TrEMBL record:
InterPro entries reported for this sequence: ACT-like_dom_sf, ACT_dom, ASB_dom_sf, D-isomer_2_OHA_DH_cat_dom, D-isomer_DH_CS, D-isomer_DH_CS1, D-isomer_DH_NAD-bd, NAD(P)-bd_dom_sf
Family according to the record: Belongs to the D-isomer specific 2-hydroxyacid dehydrogenase family.
Function: Catalyzes the reversible oxidation of 3-phospho-D-glycerate to 3-phosphonooxypyruvate, the first step of the phosphorylated L-serine biosynthesis pathway. Also catalyzes the reversible oxidation of 2-hydroxyglutarate to 2-oxoglutarate.
Species for this entry: Acidipila rosea
Taxonomic path: Bacteria, Pseudomonadati, Acidobacteriota, Terriglobia, Terriglobales
Name the UniProt record assigns to this protein: D-3-phosphoglycerate dehydrogenase
Domain of life of the source: Bacteria
Amino acid sequence: MKIILAEKVSPATLAVFKSEPDWQVLTHDQVPDLPAALANADGLVVRSAVQVDDKLLAFAPRLRVIGRAGVGVDNIDADAATRRGIVVMNTPGANAIAVAELTLGLMIALGRQIPKANATMHAGKWEKKSLQGVELRGKTLGILGLGRIGLEVARRARSFGMEIIGHDPFVSAAIARENQIRLVSVEELFRESDYLTLHVGLTPQTAGIINEASIATMKKGIRIINCARGELIVEEALAEALKSGQVGGAALDVFHKEPLKDSAFFGLENVILTPHIAGSTAEAQEAVGIQIALQVREYLKLGVVQNAVNMPSLSHEEYLELEPYIKMAQRLGSFVAQFPEGNIESIHIAYNGRIADSKTELIRNSAIEGVLGHSENVNRINAASVAMERGIRVHEDTKEAASGGAGNVVKLTLHTQNAEVTASATVLHGSSARLLSLDGIDIEAPLEGTLLTIHNQDVPGVIGRIGTILGEHRINVANFALGRSDRSHRVPQGTALAVVQIDGEVTDAVLKALRGVDAISQVRLVNLGEEVK
């Protein structure tokens, strides 16, 4: 593996990669020409200075992962990376304590007018009477967003005797109770808070959530702290509310445009402005560096995707549980892709069992990878993007409840203009991928190695003829599975299916001999290999 650390990192971050004896690791001072260094690189780690755009990625044909030591990924073209099959990871939460501590510090600074006290003292003034403040004790703190940072803020605010309310549709009631947070609607949050702190990401729903209308619903004199994203606030509306006294004070660490050169907040005494320093502590910078190094290493060694911005993230435990199904889905896709006649128009994936409630995106993408892998360079990261570019519709809208039979089943259907083919598979004994059906015929066969699928009339003598032909060509049969249609399926009555796993090479002469048997209607050779990576 070759890793490029394009910006300065801590010695502890470097040590994570250096612990891999066979890995080549180049630091920023060893890379005078980044595009040239990326030509054979597997991983790239950056902070915020290096611009990783499509032009730069064109120099990195082998690159598999980009690690951002920090939260924001504005300097990385995630769409371009996705198209090229590259995972983009960041490190949310590694600086949670640093951000939480600054949030509490800003709350105290607002309530006790610390910046004004400091400025007047440096000016030689003693304005004790005008600097009477308010305590945090007994006040209601509203937290918008109860992720790692929001929860760290709540834990610290409790020690000040604050009542804590919060809004986050993606946090469970149990977590809220455990942290003594009363969950409320966003309207209640705005209406009841004495202090309001923002800890949500930027989405269409959260952009401009602090605006003229929402501010009007808040308590007069509310104090607002934002250490998340500048775009959460309509800055002109907040500035007017600060001037009118509707908002008693604000502490802002993030802004629409950074660095901040011209702002409606300049000159307002009831605003504290800091230059995006919430996560800028020595401890936090060390933590994000180590975390991104561990994430990149886990992905390159084991395929575990953590904190990806262009793919769903799985914990190590979640990945271990889903890994057999991810690999099985790729084999199933490769298997089914052998059968359709004509161009594929759509892919339909359905789940049965407990995996239906899991993060199935990697299973989906692996199935697509298997389907399209015969035609171009596609992997689990860019599979859905490649399908979209090729005009292939992907449907994943049927996640079926568990039923009898195999506990976890993936069913894959390929549609062409004139036909469709459907197959299903499962994983047995923790790692063995098994085919369960093909076009309505139930069958259990290994989903690995070299397979012959043979459709034939359900008449005597066919199995014997198949065995004889393979024996004559000195081909050993590793597994021979049989299935037959019945009236409940759409296949014609009297159709049978054999899936034969074989050792050795299948030549054109073997296929010609099998197809020459009168009762055999179709023979397909499928090579799935021994292992899917």
